Amino acid sequence: MIxxxxxxxxxxxxxxxxxxxxxxxxxxxxxPSTLATLRxxxxxxxxxxxxxxxDSLTLFGFADAEARExxxxxxxxxxxxxxxxxxxLAVLEPDKLRHALAEGNITVLTxxxxxGKKGAERLIIxxxxxxGALPTPTTPAHSKTRDHxxxxxxxxxxxxxxxxxxxxxxxxxNPDQSTSAxxxxxxxxxxxx
Length: 193
Description:
Layout: E1 4-12, E2 16-21, E3 24-29, H1 32-35, E4 43-53, E5 56-62, H2 65-74, H3 82-91, H4 94-103, H5 106-109, H6 117-127, H7 140-155, H8 160-173, H9 179-189
Parallel strand pairs: 3-5
Antiparallel strand pairs: 1-2, 1-4, 2-3, 4-5
Helix pairs in contact: 2-3, 7-8, 7-9, 8-9
Keywords: Cytoplasm, DNA damage, DNA recombination, DNA repair, DNA-binding
InterPro entries: DNA_helicase_Holl-junc_RuvA_I, Hlx-hairpin-Hlx_DNA-bd_motif, NA-bd_OB-fold, RuvA, RuvA_2-like, RuvA_C, RuvA_C_sf
Main location: cytoplasm
């Protein structure tokens, strides 16, 4: 699959841009906020998702990998195709979408054209647990420690949600621990010595 493009912007339209890579122009569907960052003739790098249908191959582009991941996740819900997933990201920034799903905020989700009350409820039910727990407020001093330990646990094969919850619990007990101490406590909590 095509997961990113880097090349010169040849054209910027209302709902798409053409990015030339190695002499080939790729038409990429994007949100208005992503399109606003592009300038014709300038070099760009975008995260992409290729949607294959029986009669078409369509590239969708995003400012970052997080938006691309949410785009894919949205499509796992029955009744949500790539167009509605892109419209969702056009109306709601990734953080706002995550908060709406985590809080079960139907009002925010129904702001998206094509998503009614039942569709919003289905999104919440199916994606609330998949978007991950919202990060707990952390001070800058230990947010780096949290990020490093969570990354280490992910590298060891632990699920993201379990890693984040465990590290948050360890830091809640004593926020001034060193990174290695937090990692040891998290591993002990998760059952590994």
